Amino acid sequence: MASGGAPLPGATHWATKVELTISCENLMDMDVFSKSDPLCALYINTSGSHWYEFGRTEMILNCLNPKFAKKFVVDYFFETVQKMKFCVYDIDNDTYDLGDDDFLGELECTLGQIVSNRQMTRPLLLKDKRPAGHGTITICAEEITDTRVAIFEVSGRRLDKKFLWWSDPFLELYKQTETGWQLAHRTEVVNNNVNPVWRPFRVSLRSLCGGEVERPIKVDCYDNHVSGAHDLIGSFKATLAEMQMGTHVSPAEFECIIPKKLKKKNYKNSGVICIKNCQVVKEYTFLDYIMGGCQINFTIAIDFTGSNGDPSSPQSLHYINPEGYNEYLSAIWAVGNVVQDYNSTKMFPVFGFGAQLPSTLQVSHEFPINFNPANPFCAGIEGVVQAYRQCLPRLKLWGPTNFSPIINHVVCFARQALHQNTASQYFVLLIITDGVITDMDQTRTAIVEASRLPMSIIIVGVGGADFSEMEFLDSDDKLLSSPRGDVASRDIVQFVPFRDFQGNSVALAQSVLAELPDQVASFFNSYKLKPPNILTESYPS
Length: 541
Fold this sequence. Notes:
The protein has 541 residues and is an alpha+beta fold. 18% of the residues lie in helices and 33% in strands. The chain is built from 11 helices and 26 strands. The strands form 6 sheets. Strands 17, 18, 21, 22, 24, 25 and 26 form a 7-stranded mixed beta sheet that branches. Strand 25, helix 9 (468-473) and strand 26 (493-497) form a beta-alpha-beta unit. It is globular, with a radius of gyration of 25 Å.
């Protein structure tokens, strides 16, 4: 779920949280031998013609009428006109850049329009404002007031075989609304298994049943087909209260039924869905943790490899122009000015990598830019900028571009924090780089380990290089895996190319920090760690 985002300058930090659910119908079919593979990206306007990408839904294969499971959580300010643009694309490749994918249409509107309608259906338009075929987009808005979630452990037993001797089952859970059934969650596909065990998942009670434990929930079990024409294995309806009856020893069991088969004499069911655990817990928000004493520890890593060019040359990415800026400094100012408000000490460790050090002439991939290993901290963002300017003439830019040493450095501190078993510290690593990673395998391994710790990684790409490998690390659609096959427990990397923001530091900060509040809150909630200064409240079981 995409959520959070830095507040606009001058706006109050107190806002209503609104969850947006997206679906489309009758999309244009841009593929020759199959159907379009749609994805919806949400852009938010900051000023004038400046838009930044807030988030993306998942991509759905071969589907012209997609119901997206991934939702957007945004701050709603009644007193502000908040312009939004929903853009739908047919994904044709593995690159993160949407510019090389087929455009299926867009809707530009305000958040106020969405909230006042609650459910709004509008035609999709092409860039020249002509209709995008018969395509429409529907946006449902719901205020977030209930922070409870249901945590599920679900398996299947003796599901119908849809292809010879196996099926590839997945589940969809639907909320009952006034206008029909609304998708709340879609599980992963378990391949070649009629007795599947799905990964544990969590769904907000707001999305699942509007917070009413006696409201019916519809569960559909499908056999996955790459063509998008999924076969229904069976369905059932149950309330959350009924699902909560299940335990590992005695699961709550629900028969998957295809109604038209009930007329057959010997038909009993198409398999059984077993709910081994359905636990309702309260989730704390990002603000709960920040106001409860959690500190955001901000570390900066700067790329000093030779591909940046000689800093004395105006063509170099490290060249400081007459106004005193370059892309590295702009990224530091943009992100640092927001994050520093969430750390009481305002002291930030800053490291460089990929340069020869003046004292040893050895290439280092983890050196403090103030050349003081015992105290690598800089006082505020102003101190970071000063240390950067002072160290630059003393370095010889070299290579290669290795990320893993600095990631592992922050991992050590995040691991120590987790061992304290409190939600008192969260670590954010900002890496600013100009190019291709040399130690990709080691970097993947380090990120997978970091995903299990209170840590997030922001990568800002400067210059005009090919950043496809960075986009691979920002695993929005599929969790990153290490070369050994270990899968990350969550997506903790956010990558943006600096060139996309044309000097708009507000838009840059909002884009790279959009996912951070949800990453902080979801991590601590998953470990059942409450805000450190909430002493009188026990975590719900």
